[in-house]
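Researcher: Please generate the 3D structure of the following complex. Treat every line as part of one assembly.
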Amino acid sequence: MVSRLIPVREAILAGAILVLLALVASRFAGFVAPANLANVFNDTAPLIILALGQMVVILTRCIDLSVAANLALTGMTVAMINVAMPGLPIPVIIAVAIALGAVMGAINGLLVWKLSIPPIVVTLGTMTIFRGTIFLISDGKWVNAHEMSAAFTGFPRAAFLGLPVLSWAAIATILVFGVMMARTPLGRSIFAVGGNPHAAVYAGIDVGRTQFLAFVISGALAGLTGYLWVARYAVAYVDIAGGFELEVVAACVIGGISIAGGIGSVGGAVLGAIFLGVVKNALPVVDISPFWQLAISGSAILIAVAFNARAGKARGRIILKSTVAPT
Amino acid sequence: MSDSTLQARPETRHVPDRLNSRAFRTLRSWESLLLAVAIAIFIVNSFASPYFLNVWNLSDATFNFTEKAMIAFAMALLIISGEIDLSVASIIALASTAMGLAVQYGAGTPELVVIGLAVGLLCGAFNAVFVTIMGLPSIVVTIGTMSLFRGISYIILGDDAFRGYPASFAWFGQGYIYWVFTVEMLFFVIIALAFGVLLHKTNFGRAVYAIGNNPTGAMFSGIRVQKVKFILFLLTGLMSGAAAVFLTSRLGSTRPSIATGMELEVVTMVVLGGVNILGGSGSIPGVVIAAFVMGLVTFGLGLLNVPGIVMSIFIGLLLIGVIALPRLWTMAANRRRG
Amino acid sequence: MTESGSPVVSMDAITKTFPGVKALDQVRLDLYPGQVTALVGENGAGKSTTVKILTGIYRPDGGTIRIDGNPVDLTTPNDAAASGITAIHQETVLFDELSVAENVFIGHAPRTRLGLIDRAEMHRAAARLLDEIGAPFGTHTPLRELGIANKHLVAIARALSVDARVVIMDEPTAALSHKEIEELYELVETLKAQGKAILFISHKFDEIFRIADRYTVFRDGAFVADGEIADIDENALVKMMVGRAVDHIFPARRPTVAEEVLQVVGYDHPTEFADIGFRLHRGEILGFYGLVGAGRSEFMQSLFGITRPSKGVCKMNGKIRVIRSPADAVANGIVYVPEDRGKQGAIIGLPIFQNITLPSLGRTSRNGFLQLAEEFKLAREYSERLDLRAASLDQDVGNLSGGNQQKVVIAKWLATQPQVIILDEPTKGIDIGSKAAVHEFMAELAAQGLSVIMVSSEIPEVIGMSDRVIVMRDGRIAAELSGDDLRPETLVRHAAGISTPAPQEA
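Model: Done. Output below.
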């Protein structure tokens, strides 16, 4: 019973991250200095935010492959708004980014909910549509640092209590999700819909609507990240965050979110993202070519999924009574 | 023809073999709808650009889809069986890298082809082991191997590229069989026919449909489900290896970023071809027509100087549109009736 | 009943149509406070549809539902809950990944002032409810750790967590043991005493006569009669149910002594069964009786190669056969008609003829290539032999009724010309008419020399059809009975383990 209280998967993953940090520290002690760790966290913040959005979608038995394209389109849009209206205050920019992202998420959600098109098909399609739309609105041109206002690019890097705003955005998202998943009817519905959609109907939960909301949440977070990303790197172009959707899914899988829905946790998604972030930042430090990163994250996905499946494998029904002496 | 059985047991209930004629069904099928779309695009294109109806241009246009379609045929079977392989483009990268590496050690054209196909097969087997023997979900496994396979290419190549393929190797991706007909077209036709026969005319194909509709039921019916799926992953890997041979031959060089994003185009082609992404139904003729539709759209828009990225909007809309429109239509019809 | 006065819930002229089927045609149903109303009817009579309408899952096409005389619209499950209607469904509709308390309260958890779920209050309230029904587990337990009977208690607690005036119980005892059923009856009495109206759906007549106060009979989606249980007897109720008097007679059989076909020795599985051994002869029907969950299906699936025994030998016609997969079993002449038709039997999405020929493709094809004419010939032969009712052989098997799907599954296996056919609950969920046909057919098969193993939980069926019966309990063979020992009491006593000295098989 007691072992149930400690989430086993998360503990193992956290252990793996600590071992990884120890290994890196043995070669280069500076890596585990608090300032550097804060840097790694800041660098991983977008992945954490998107992984939490993706987690909600995957929990409801869907998948959102359009997050990176959503991020890029939102990022380009707010960058262009900033160029056109440099005086627009940052809170308005953020509100626009979140709203725009949410609208794109809602498009995915509506297609899944109202037309029952499989999510993988929907988001495959909207992924290319969103990406193409960036080209249409920008004419393929870049928005560069010197065109953006100082307030626009400065916000995510502004330090607050020693951490950049970007990191605080990730922390806030983690906290909100912690409360939302555990303590709100929507959070519990998301688990219920993914765990047993049939039963959810009987419990008065609208499966399609819950999936729709999951897509809206994922989209809104992608929108928020879109602004943070473009402002942080101070550049917007068609291909930003290309292929990032797979890294986001990878973070979820490594974090133990079951692709079949219903199983997963906020802690898992965050740790999965941090694992990938640590790997990415550690490679150059220990003198391994960054070209290894892709293969390592691929292997991590395979190991994680194999491990989680083994842990959750259904055993045979227990019919024999242990008290009956074998003949 | 069953009159004799009727007379033999007069009280037996006679159940006809078929209700609708085959012609009637064909007319109402997804494939016919898609064919109409293809013809419409063809007509629009020939009006939109004076260069469209040039046979050499049309011949060039086939390169837009032949390599992808080769993988799509194998992928169609895989998706019908209820699995998916998102690592196909990465298999191309790894197979192409292996070929490039072999060139550095002086491999000739026959060796290159064997190496390309063998690497494809091995990658397919790797996926198959995880999915069929370890019982893991294929979407996650192949997202993993998608990173892993391409990752290995990056480790080997980094920022570099392999060049210096032998001149005779160019035949696959740049050669012509006769007049405007390319070598790739020939292989496209052969592979389409082979997969068409495999899916629609053999016991193996029937097993694929049975597994896609109800894997448990298929297993309870004595079908070796995991074996069939294993073979399907092998075939998908093999076809990715073949596509790697053609693509590498056509480009004449290998970079680790080769064929990036092609897995999504292949899946789009399969779904556009009427294959149910959830498994159980679909046809090879459908995928063939979808290949032409995608090729024609890309080519036609290209002639109008529309950039590739904007074409992808069109492909994305097509993918969602062809699935959404019939559903919207039924919904509207139901509402009117209700 | 003059005292109870007016009904709490009253359904009037309710109609519900699905594509091609009229599930309910102008039915009526009244539920009175403090009384148990049994809804009686064959499968397909419209009972489940009625439950789904009352709980807001389906919307009726016509008619009115009144609560305390006022017409209401039960559009969603939440509307039904708000109107005080709650249900314990046939299947467990719960969530494995959530805790017991969350399962009880999902959809209507108590909230704090901030609008968040009040966990402390939720666990307190859940503990109170579980206490009331005597559940032996905590509210923090994840549901996946509970057994079927305990899950049922969670479902009951969930039903009671709504301030319900009407409790619907849809075949609540189907998966429960004797003791658990007794506890359920006590609970029903408690609910009655609290003045709740109870709708009780069951196929078991002893149960209906024991706890129901009133009855309502549906047949083929139409209302037949209602009244008080005290005014009616079992025969009359059956007559109303099926529209004719049914005196089910099992086909007469002459047990013959013939050569041995199958011998199983010492089959063991780590958790599901142990030490299973028996012999089966040509033309014999061997019954397997036991309580639900006694390990019968698990053993059969192992014999068929779905799961692997850890130990044990299987001999066909005296030769040892290693069966590692269903394909091996079919190749050796053993076939299995599973209990779960929709998932394990028919392949919904494929046409009838392809279902029938699936395991026989080796015979109908040439060099691995399909020959449709041969397939249709084979499919036609067996579908006619089984008197299949279908529009055409290329129709999707999913469009057939349960009984006809079962015929397709049996046809599929007969077409492989097996030596041993295992039928797992062959008549479960089939109407009385089809049942007799299946029994008739089983007898015919045995007479033709096929060896039949029949797993069944219905005592009349087991006794009526079997030459010999093996009773299983807790994964082991408890007894092997034949001749005069084949009596209902003996079966029940061995199955429940209440026979005087524990029978120790060698």
